[in-house]
Design goal:
The chain is of the alpha+beta class. The chain has one domain. The protein contains 7 helices and 8 strands. A 6-stranded antiparallel beta sheet has the order 1-2-3-4-5-6. The chain has a two-stranded antiparallel sheet with strand order 7-8. Helix 1 packs across helix 4. The longest helix has 15 residues. The radius of gyration is 17 Å and the shape is globular. The termini are far apart.
């Protein structure tokens, strides 16, 4: 059994019962064929008590966004400006860090800062890392504890920090609330763009909502 097959075996039922009907969006990525094979086996899924969410590649009705919708500029990614160029976001963890394809492999995208780091050179290696280090990669402990206190997380929702983590917010359930995934990414993009290129240790005053004139 491959690592991708193992991940599929412990995940939910497919989010869409029909196979992918449009692969154009992934054709230009070196790892696109690997991603397509995974989605042909299971067209979108949750794993680790919803901590990992893999988007379905489909235009059929589905609760939450499809991979095509999630990667549309009109939803949230254009709010990160050039930080999302050349990336295809195919999965997310419970706190909305994204897993994405690039020309060099699978990257992890920090949703609060817009920074990326290379995780793996294949989808098989990505699945191996997820399985081996699922708590750190998916946020399973927080997902488990929050849902034990508040009930199952609805589809299309992710856990949002009341105080951003990279500004010292605590990784506790008291600092979390369940919000719409797209709205959460738009808010994080606002934070990321306001703090972009600031040196470590800089005092930050975030402006929420309408910005004052320069």
């Amino acid at each position: 059994m491959t690592r991708v097959e193992k991940l599929l075996s412990i995940s939910s039922e497919p989010l869409v019962s029909t196979p992918p009907d449009n692969s154009e969006i992934i054709q230009h990525f070196p790892l696109g064929p690997e991603l397509l094979r995974m989605l042909e086996s299971k067209n979108g899924f949750y794993a680790f008590e919803s901590a990992l969410h893999v988007f379905p590649l489909t235009n059929a009705p589905v609760e939450g966004a499809s991979l095509v919708e999630w990667n549309s500029d009109s939803l949230w990614r254009s709010d990160f400006a050039d930080l999302t160029v050349g990336l295809l976001f195919f999965a997310e963890n419970i706190l909305q860090d994204q897993f994405c394809l690039s020309g060099s492999g699978v990257l992890r995208f920090n949703a609060e800062t817009g920074g990326t780091n290379l995780m793996a050179d294949s989808l098989e290696s990505w699945a191996e890392i997820i399985l081996r280090d699922y708590d750190r990669q998916t946020g399973w402990t927080l997902a488990n504890k929050w849902q034990s206190e508040n009930g199952p997380l609805p589809r299309g929702k992710r856990l949002m920090p009341k105080s951003p983590f990279f500004l010292g917010g605590a990784y506790t359930t008291e600092n979390l609330w369940a919000g719409d995934a797209a709205e959460g990414m738009r808010f994080k993009a606002d934070v990321a763009m306001q703090t972009r290129n600031m040196p470590n240790g800089t005092q930050v005053r975030l402006v929420i909502g309408k910005k004052p004139p320069n």
